[in-house]
Design a protein that fits this description.
Layout lengths: L6 E7 L2 E8 L1 E5 L4 E4 L6 E4 L2 E8 L2 E8 L2 E5 L2 E5 L3 E3 L5 H20 L3 H21 L2
Parallel strand pairs: 1-9
Antiparallel strand pairs: 1-2, 3-4, 3-6, 5-8, 6-7, 7-10, 8-9
Helix pairs in contact: 1-2
């Protein structure tokens, strides 16, 4: 009897590998929609939104806050290259909450000054902070 196929997932950032695991089911949020990947899924290359990556293995589920990037999947190997990523247990919630407050203030300032470039940067910073907080609190 053949062995059950498994997924191999690796998340890397410019600072190095953040996560590596083998398991059953990967969930990512692409720029189009959430996507679930099971073993033997068709090849995929897609950009990722600022959101959590969930990976099920050995009856557990890992959550990783991913800040953009892309996923490449083929031959049961998923590689996620992200601007930054943090495992659920590594997230400093108070630091993320401080970043959220700074981003909110920056958004208000950019709106008052009618500065679309700073507004866009502040909105991305806010999404990243909220993502980190949400992943940490699951």
């Amino acid at each position: 009897m053949a062995d059950k196929p498994v997924l191999s997932v690796s998340i890397v950032t410019p600072d190095g590998r953040v996560y590596e695991q083998k398991g059953d089911f990967l969930i990512v949020t692409t720029s189009y929609a959430p996507m679930g990947i099971l073993p033997n899924h068709v090849p995929v290359l897609a950009t990722l939104k600022v959101d959590e990556v969930r990976f099920k293995h050995d009856g557990e589920q890992d959550r990783i806050a991913v800040n953009g990037g892309f996923i490449e999947f083929s031959n049961n190997v998923a590689t996620i290259v992200a601007d930054s990523a943090e495992r659920q247990g590594d997230i400093d919630v108070s630091r993320a909450q401080s970043a959220q407050e700074r981003a909110k203030k920056a958004i208000e300032k950019a709106k008052a000054e009618k500065d679309p470039d700073n507004l866009a940067r502040a909105e991305v910073a806010l999404r990243r902070a909220i993502n980190r907080i949400n992943v940490a609190n699951h």
